[in-house]
Amino acid sequence: GISASAAAAPADEPIQVIKPAANINLGLVDLGKKLYFDPRLSKSGFISCNSCHNLSMGGTDNIPTSIGDKWQQGPINSPTVLNSSLNLAQFWDGRAADLKEQAGGPIANPGEMGFSHTLAVQVLETIPGYVREFRQVFGKDKIDIDQVTLAIAEFEKTLVTPNSRFDQWLLGKTDALSENELAGYTLFKESGCVACHNGEAVGGNSFQKMGIVEPYKTKATAGGRADVTGKDADRFNFKVPTLRNVELTYPYFHDGAANTLAEAVDIMGRLQLGKKFTDAENAKIVAFLKTLTGDQPSFALPILPPSSDTTPRPQPFSK
Amino acid sequence: GISASAAAAPADEPIQVIKPAANINLGLVDLGKKLYFDPRLSKSGFISCNSCHNLSMGGTDNIPTSIGDKWQQGPINSPTVLNSSLNLAQFWDGRAADLKEQAGGPIANPGEMGFSHTLAVQVLETIPGYVREFRQVFGKDKIDIDQVTLAIAEFEKTLVTPNSRFDQWLLGKTDALSENELAGYTLFKESGCVACHNGEAVGGNSFQKMGIVEPYKTKATAGGRADVTGKDADRFNFKVPTLRNVELTYPYFHDGAANTLAEAVDIMGRLQLGKKFTDAENAKIVAFLKTLTGDQPSFALPILPPSSDTTPRPQPFSK
Ligand code: HEC
Ligand code: HEC
Ligand code: HEC
Ligand code: HEC
Ligand SMILES: [Ca+2]
Ligand SMILES: [Ca+2]
Ligand SMILES: [Ca+2]
Ligand SMILES: [Mg+2]
pLDDT-derived band of residue B12, with 50, 70 and 90 as boundaries? Predict the structure, then answer.
């Protein structure tokens, strides 16, 4: 039979339908897409945004903590860029206000792309194809890092994933979800998960403590939101991750320590809610979470303009 | 005025028009494309074929010698995969007979993807999306490495680059090349470059000694064809690289030591032909070579099927 949830009006639900990107500047998006895929924004010439936020794999690297310049082991799990425009702030601790502010970070981070803004702009300025495209898009003669981060951020705005089976159900297609999946959604709501995971992105809209009922044990050293605010009350508060496409963004948590959704759901139940789910309950919630996988970004692999004779060459092996 | 070359019938030319890929199995290509982009074929989960043969960048990494597992410095320059189906054999020394034989190499090479065929197949067998697709394509219940390399090779067959301006000229569009470019082509023919760089791929169809008139000085240790045949006469013989898309495949030579086309052309003239080109002649040849850039592969970024709970996880930092 049809469950109570299936009959509920979408307006009552704590999760909202995800909307396709709107008000997008297509010229800017096209330029930003190239930059997102261009490893010449890194010192080595080997690492692009897409290396750690692989759009073939849910916008993550599926590694516990990232590999950066010279194979350095990163301190924290790479979050998905999918639907990141919906976040209240960027990074696990929210230290960047928005995508444009965020995009400047990794280029100059010694543990990620290992480059500098000045060098990145120098590279771009010697690539005739980029010079032409920046001029077309911005109508200016000189490239600067603000243009670079603005273009990347505009591209990222297009990385929303509408049309998940859950969204179809929200929109009234009652047979889009199985009974098992609907039962999982009911558990998700009634257990209190929606207190933190709600809204269009099913997360991303608040900072919350990891380990409310029981402390979370980790070898990672991230202090969470307190690293930004300096306030003790914010210690171990992290931005609640979006659960959109969570099927694709393993491993889980800021330290990437949970390999499977079953493990993550079990830990969330116990640590955040003091609730031990049975295996059957856990499986239902996991089945529901998998209905949040939406249409993945679909576009042609960008072809990058070639370097010129004067373009500074990558330095993958220099000290 | 129209030069002699412009008036010549294409049939007389030592370079032939490149043909689009034919007799392609589309199901196989689609599977092979996913595998080509899948870093789970590497130990680290970070390196795919596309890392070193980036199809956004002419099918190479644009680094003198490649970066492999754990940031190991490779011994030799990564050749383009574009038009590699036209090669008489694969690798600089021709040690693989064809693309299928080649594709097994990097997965198990400790300095490249650092994995093993058994482990790669184990990973694929635990990914439901792959299990389904392999079964559809091969009609068999088990995945094996032969299927993997066959699919990748079939995808690579599609990576031809027709419709370069030079091909348009060969096909009779006399204004497809400038006078300067045509003069470069005439120099390329009359100087003797076409002795080695000819045919559909403008190379790729013979092994030739690097440094005929004058020895080539390099820190690289590759012995060339002699490493395969054991014959002294083959020492420092390398497969002549294709000059298709050579504008995109910098740096040049098996050691990646020449940063620019001008440098490569100068070295070729002196070492292979005992000929010192003037700057003007060199520039004309370079202008001609840039007309060999064809249509780059155009396809949607593949979306990879997610791992399951039982998929062995990548080991980027283990010894
Ligand atoms: C070497 C790996 C690596 C590279 C390269 C990299 N990132 Fe990240 N990215 C990360 C990690 C790890 C985090 C989380 C850092 C944190 O929260 O402290 C992150 C965070 C982000 C976030 C915030 C998402 C959220 O939900 O908070 C965005 C957006 C993002 N990166 C986009 C980019 C862009 C754009 C580029 C290229 C200019 C890029 N990244 C390059 C690893 C990487
Ligand atoms: C009090 C707030 C709160 C509640 C309640 C809560 N979560 Fe979370 N959730 C978080 C925070 C914060 C994180 C990130 C923690 C970290 O990475 O250290 C998280 C992470 C997750 C993740 C991992 C996402 C990823 O990409 O790493 C999953 C899955 C998840 N929650 C599901 C659930 C489920 C299911 C419930 C209910 C049983 C639940 N959450 C209840 C705040 C909450
Ligand atoms: C770590 C870098 C790296 C990775 C990963 C890599 N390659 Fe290569 N590839 C190279 C290098 C370097 C060579 C030249 C080796 C030689 O000639 O000895 C090469 C040679 C080739 C060739 C021969 C081209 C020619 O003209 O001779 C083909 C084809 C090829 N690779 C395809 C692939 C495929 C398919 C994969 C993935 C299964 C792959 N490569 C993974 C670096 C890499
Ligand atoms: C006797 C044979 C021979 C002749 C003649 C010859 N080449 Fe080459 N060419 C080669 C070989 C072999 C290589 C690869 C050498 C290496 O990498 O060590 C090569 C490499 C090149 C490259 C670099 C390609 C790459 O992707 O690395 C260019 C450019 C080139 N040749 C252009 C020319 C030009 C222009 C001429 C005439 C001035 C010429 N060649 C004459 C055999 C020849
Ligand atoms: Ca902020
Ligand atoms: Ca994750
Ligand atoms: Ca090269
Ligand atoms: Mg060799």
Answer: confident
